[in-house]
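Hey all, sorry for the wall of text incoming. These are the two entities for the joint prediction.
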Amino acid sequence: MTEGLSREIFGNLDGGSRAVFYLLAFVSCAVFLWGIWRRVRLWRRGRPDNESINWRRACHNIRTRVLAQRSLRGSRPRASCAHRMLFWGFLALLIGTILVGIEHYGAAMAGKEAVSPLFHKGLYFVIYEITMEIFGLLLVGGAAWFVGRRFRADSSMEHRAADWLVIFSLVVLGVTGYLIEGLRIIRENTPLPGISFVGYGCSKVFAFGGVDQSNVSSIHFGLWWFHSIVAFGFIAALPFCRLAHAVAGVLSLAASPRPLGHMEPVTMAEVEETGEVGVGRLEQFERRDLLRLDACVSCGRCEDLCPAHEAGKPLSPRDLVQDLRGYMEAVSPGALHGETIGAETLWACTTCNSCADICPLGVRPVDYITDLRRHLISEGELRGAPAMSLQKMQRAGNPWGLPAQDRLAWADGLKVPTVQDNPGFDVLYWVGCSAAYDRRVMKVARAVAQLLQRAQVSFAVLGPEERCSGESARRMGDEFLFQELATANIHTFGKYGVKKIITHCPHCLNSLRQDYPQFDGHYEVMHHTQFLGELVAAGKLKAAAGMNGTVTYHDPCYLARVNDIAEAPRQLLPASMNEMPRHGCHAGCCGAGGGRMWFDDPVQERIGTNRITEALDTGAKTVAVSCPFCLTMMSDGLAAKDAGVQVCDIAELMAEEQSNQP
Amino acid sequence: MKILVPCKRVPDPDQKLRLNAEATDVDSTALTYILNPFDAIAVEEALCIRETTHPDAEIIAVSVAPAEGEDDLRTALAMGADRALLVEHDAQLDSWNVARLLAAVVEREQPALVIMGKQAVDDDANQTGQFLAVQLGWSQATFASQVEFTETGLRVHRETDLGIEIIHVSLPAVVTADLRLNEPRYASLPSILKAKKKPTEYTTAEELGVKPEPRVRLLSMELVHSQRNCEMVTSARELILKLRETEVIKG
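and here's what came out:
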């Protein structure tokens, strides 16, 4: 029954129209390619990429992140849904159009008449029509939702005329497509028109409005041309507006965005050659970083989540990327630092990685920030308390500048073995500077050590031989201070044959896991909550699951988001815990990462103030944490509110639990 | 214009000090040294002058120290000083004699301005700047918290116990930096390495034609043992009673 089903391609169009159509198609494609080439030239101003393209990964990324749209997640579910509809609709119609093209040229090459198609007929035609009808609806529905959102004047997005035009033209293309189909059904009297159900509906409306065989051709002709011209305009405009993300975004996602928390090392040889560190000029970004500037559509998901922006600091990751993009395309852009990107913007970042995590297009605002910070550091553009902390790390190996001999003060009376006392240790307990010198955090280390002793783990600490991991120095942009500290630590690890490390500090954890291997330091690194979880599973310790009172848990950025460790800490806490609205990899930042720990902010200007409120709103009497910085920030914030809520590391809660139930 | 910035190396104040066996000096083994923080402020001020009003200024860091003092001069170079001069001297010197050596350097370099820390954080003497101005017969502006150039010299805000005193001094002058003059910039490792390429000159008291004549003789040193007992009080009343009890306040 499907025999004889088809439609005539270029039906109702004479030879002259076709010639004009091809001419316009050529012009619009040429403009498109020229536009892309202009962008490519901008991207090529950057220095060559460090990594070469991994095609397998690229194919995987395109399949999952682009085609399956999996990088749209985490926030704005309705916009994500609308984008998926629009994208899949657009993609299907694009493929459909290409298939029609293949059919058309194939038939021409096979010497067939337009009315006797190669494959665009029969059952194939039925499936094709139904599919196109459905995906067309997705396109129009998605685009219409976006138009509707623009009418609601959401302040989170930009409202340039071009943005309006782009989204509106998609609706117009979809709708006129259906209308033309309806007119075609009337004109050609297409058999079985119900398979093109939307177009069929349109044809009924047209018929009701008085369109019949006598006048349909001219209306069809006019609308067909309108549709075509809008389509050509759309193709030509693509590289010049937000739609450029369709190209740059795909390339960005294909080029495997760096893992969260990963930083590219700089070698001293490079610095000796160029005399410069980090990015002082646009050309010092890698090409893929510049490409990613064009991937940004300014959607503002990053800004929604940015803790510095939330606290009123002069940083919006979206604006930063858009400012860099504007700088990239400006004819005489002026200075990158100071004029385009202010130092106070760069220093506001906690490197919490929310922006990089949420970006559906693989843009990494935090990476631009750390690259730009490296330049500030090398130019001496850091002063005051944070500069002092770096100086002290440089001088004494810890941010407080205190003597290395005091590194074991926390263990007073605990008989904690050093690497000399227990050379055959199984695991090294990396204590970190906070627990070595901050009186409050010392109690965390004491709790961890006591738990390890109770579970009879053969462990050791480095004691006076431990140095700052260099994590915050690196994230502040002081690459060579980091490298000096890392090299010293790696040397010490080598000296004592360290293979497995546990630490209660997610910042040290991330550095040991992701930074140290770049300098030949390869270890198995576990967070204490993971290790303690294993001990609980082995029946050697009890979890704090039975603790009294209500508890909530604040996820550290570098644990949950950057290193994907959100379950292990929860396993140690009561299942009935009050979760905060933002938890797991979506947790809000306490404000201390990226070296912000060393900035002297007045309490009311601190980043993370909302996080304190969020914790209080759960009604929990205990805020459990698993990071020394979070512990300090949450304790300070809650003390300022006089809330009567205690902040404890999970290890402390566990240690208490052991003594409660002997 | 030349600006001379005398820089002293001092033991890192965060480290624990011990005395040598004879109790005549701090035990320098295992002690780390830093550039006196007040002198770092002076270097920063010189750099600010060059960056704002006097782009042609040449900044010379000078130190009177043993050979290791070069490290701390390198900090000044890394911050941005143009060149350094080390007057190598191993023995302890009192402030008067340090000022004499600096005066000899001033004679040689002919700077228009000497900016230095108001005091060094090791002995906290707060004398060298004043002595130097006297020996040179120059104007002096001590404890500066703000320095501005005027047509005839400098307008300096001085931090005194009674408040800010604003004075005008003619050049050449010696200015000593107080804590609030500025926040020194951070010298990162690459800039410290780059600073190795900047010229450092070495000289001695002898070459400068100065024979140190000690005016102060250090007899002995002793560590102050500060025993702190912390106690929490619950009210202001209790605090006052405690203070009376321990005779911190009377009546």
